[in-house]
Design goal:
The protein is mainly alpha-helical. Among the domains are: about 180 residues, Rhomboid-like fold (Up-down Bundle), CATH 1.20.1540; about 100 residues. It is about 65% helix and about 5% strand. It has 25 helices and five strands. A three-stranded antiparallel beta sheet has the order 1-4-5. Strands 2-3 form a two-stranded antiparallel sheet. A hairpin with a 2-residue loop joins strand 4 and strand 5. Helix 1 packs antiparallel against helix 10, helix 3 packs across helix 5 and helix 16 runs antiparallel to helix 17. The longest helix has 23 residues. The chain starts with a strand and ends with a helix. It is found in: Membrane.
């Protein structure tokens, strides 16, 4: 089964810099540092066979399997012809931490003389194994090594292994890096790699194997993508058996599908030698990090939404606008509510829902929808003007927000530099905290100072008239004297 999100084209505007750098690093590691591993490994294995290390380690290995009750491994070893056993032990114990630890302790040697003869031979062999870059950095199943938990994510076992992982990294990086930012994306990748390694260690503790590849970190991006993009419809390519096509679905739907596929394979096909355990751990780690980013509002909604205001290939916004034009308010509201659930931060959708309630003459819905529009924080001048219009319409309909909400609006609009809207709101927010009101009026007066002298003086006089006992009133008098008024 192959499911790949292909929702955004790769352009200069959407180019994911950190994703590209990660791909470059993975490629350089494989063709650079790992490029000499085959020759180094062959030299080490030849030394093992020529040095007669097998004479000492073959019986020690059999004793180790008996001591640790590894019945299946013992049966497999016994099926190996005696002449091939040294080569088998050399290959199968490269990442067997428990065996090498027991060897070095001497407990697997009955004759102390054999142990002493073995030690210099093994030291030379270990020195040659140290020349194998991959062996120095891959994850070993029975060892907690923080460095290896990260470094293994930059190693690959072959060209196709590398190409497959980099293809998914590019597709997911294009969508996730743009949605959460480059720094957070790198954090998700590295922490996801560590999370995938931790899951693999938990599942395979006591085994003699190892793991490598970027798939655990890429799986973390898969989990983060599902949660960060949430209910946003996304275009996917899928390939199951002989069936393949494109489909659009909410991103979150892929989380149980991807995770379920990895867990099922882990339970049913663990013998294939694929890191389904790391994949599942990566997906869970990424989903948890994605949920944290969403909860702490560290997601770029503007990137996730289509630049034209809707999801790619999604005509619901256009259909809703057409329904509004024909006064088909119920149909428009259904479409807009779907969009609002999927993209709760979209200002244009909330504004359209307010207009549906207003045009339908439903006061309660109008008040609720209006409050939703006013609650959206925006520093865009056009959006602020639209909010000011909504506020005026609510006032005219007797549905005005309470003074506290109006004060919050005025403060936000002052921050946005929308002084006219802020002043109109402050004019109708009497009866609340006088100190805060005086501060806001003084900020407004200072804001007008460089733009409009008349408005500057007007704000100062209003402050002086409304809050003569506040400290800002003294400053207002001084400024008015300077103005000659």
């Amino acid at each position: 089964m192959l499911i790949l999100p292909l929702h955004r084209p790769l352009t200069r505007a959407t180019f994911p810099l950190v994703t590209a750098l990660l791909i470059v690093v993975n490629v350089l590691v494989f063709f650079g540092w790992q490029g000499s591993d085959e020759a180094a490994m062959e030299r080490a294995q030849q030394y093992y066979l020529q040095s007669d290390l097998g004479r000492y380690e073959v019986p020690a290995y059999e004793r180790h399997l008996l001591d640790t009750s590894q019945v299946d491994a013992l049966r497999e070893f016994e099926r190996v012809p005696e002449s091939s056993q040294p080569e088998y032990v050399a290959g199968s114990t490269l990442t067997d931490v428990a065996f090498t630890t027991a060897l070095r302790s001497g407990e697997l040697f009955e004759d102390p003389g054999d142990f002493e003869a073995w030690r210099p031979l093994r030291a030379e062999y270990d020195a040659q194994l140290e020349q194998v870059f991959t062996l120095r950095h891959l994850l070993r199943s029975s060892e907690v090594d923080p460095w290896r938990m990260l470094s293994a994510a930059f190693l690959h076992g072959g060209v196709m292994h590398l190409v497959g992982n980099m293809l998914f990294l590019l597709a997911l990086g294009l969508l996730v890096e743009g949605a959460i930012g480059s720094g957070r994306f790198l954090g998700v990748y590295l922490l996801g790699a560590a999370g995938a390694s931790a899951a693999s260690l938990l599942w395979r503790w006591g085994e003699a194997g190892g793991g490598l590849g970027a798939s655990g970190a890429v799986a973390a991006l898969m989990g983060a993508f599902c949660v960060v993009w949430g209910r946003q419809p996304v275009r996917f390519f899928y390939w199951i058996g002989v069936v393949f096509d494109y489909v659009r679905a909410p991103a979150i739907w892929l989380l149980p599908l991807w995770l379920g596929w990895e867990v099922w394979n882990l339970l049913a096909n663990d013998h294939l030698g694929i890191g389904f355990d790391a994949h599942a751990g990566g997906i869970v780690s990424g989903a948890l990090m994605g949920a944290t980013l969403v909860a702490t509002r560290q997601v770029r909604d503007g990137f996730i939404r289509d630049p034209n205001g809707g999801a790619a290939d999604d005509d619901r916004w256009q259909r809703a606008q057409a329904c509004l034009g024909r006064m088909q308010l119920i149909e428009a509201e259904v479409l807009l509510e779907e969009l609002a659930r999927e993209q709760p931060g979209r200002f244009d959708v909330r504004l359209a829902l307010y207009r549906v309630a207003r045009n339908g003459q439903r006061p309660q819905a109008m008040a609720r929808r209006g409050a939703e529009v006013l609650a959206i924080e925006s520093f865009d001048a056009e959006a602020v003007q639209a909010q000011a219009t909504v506020l005026a319409e609510l006032d005219a309909a007797g549905l005005a927000p309470d003074p506290t909400a109006r004060t919050a609006l005025a403060r936000r609009w002052l921050d946005a530099g929308e002084l006219e809207a802020a002043e109109a709101t402050l004019m109708s927010t009497g009866g609340v905290d006088a100190e805060e009101q005086a501060q806001l009026w003084f900020r407004l007066a200072l804001g007008w100072r460089e733009r409009n002298g008349e408005a500057h003086a007007r704000a100062l006089r209003t402050l002086l008239a409304r809050y003569p006992e506040q400290p800002q009133a003294k400053k207002a008098r001084f400024l008015l004297v300077e103005l000659g008024g």
